[in-house]
Amino acid sequence: MSELEKMLAGEWYWSYHPDLMAMRARARELFTQYNQTLNAEKEIRNTILTTLLGSFGKDLDIQPPFYCDYGTYIYLADNVFINFNCTILDYAPIRIGNNALIGPNVSLYAASHPLSASHRISKGSDIAKPITIGDNVWLAGNVVVCPGVTIGDNTTIGAGSIVTRDIPSNVFAAGNPCRVIRSVAD
C-alpha cells in the first residue's frame, strides 16, 4: 500500500514521502498563483481552482490569501464563501456543503500526529481523518476544526471556537472546546 493510499485510508503514513511532497508542492504553486490574482480576474481564479480543488459548485468565492496542502481532497458545494486567510490541511477529504460561510482566519485540519514524542521522532508518522461541514453552516472568524469532525446542517460555530468533536444540526456552538450553546430554529 502506498503512503498516499494509507493517508486516504486513515492509517498511519509517512508525510515526507517524495510523492506526497511533490503533490503538496504542486498545490503551493497553484494557491500562490491564486493568491496573486485580482478580484476582477474571476476566469483566471476559476481556472486555477479547477486544477487545484477536488471539486466545487457554482458561485464559489474564496478571498485570498488561501492555503491548502493538497487541494485535491477539498470538495465544495454550491454558493460557498471562504473569507481571507483560510488554511485547509486536506490530508483526508474535506467536504463543505451548500451555502456555507467560512469566516476569516478559519483553519480546517484533517491531519494529526502521534501523541507520543518517541513515535513522532522515530517514525514521523501522521494520520488523517475527514472533515464534513453540512449545508448552511457558518464558521465565524478564527474557528479551528480538528480531524474527524462533522458539523451538521444549519449550524453556526462562534468566533474563536476549537471544534474537537461532532456538532449536530440546527445549533449555535462555541468555545474551547466547542460545545452546543443552544438550538437554533429557522
Describe the protein.
By secondary structure, the chain is of the alpha/beta class. It has one domain: Hexapeptide repeat proteins (UDP N-Acetylglucosamine Acyltransferase, domain 1). The protein is 23% helix and 30% strand. It is built from four helices and 20 strands. The chain has a seven-stranded mixed beta sheet with strand order 3-6-9-14-17-19-20, with no helix packed on it. Strands 2-5-8-13-16 form a five-stranded parallel beta sheet, with no helix packed on it. Strand 19 and strand 20 form a beta hairpin. The longest helix has 18 residues. The chain is globular, with a radius of gyration of 17 Å. The relative contact order is 0.12. The model has no long low-confidence stretch (mean pLDDT 95). It is an enzyme of class 2 (transferase). Belongs to the transferase hexapeptide repeat family. Keywords: Acyltransferase, Repeat, Transferase. Acetyltransferase implicated in the O-acetylation of Nod factors. This is Acetyltransferase.
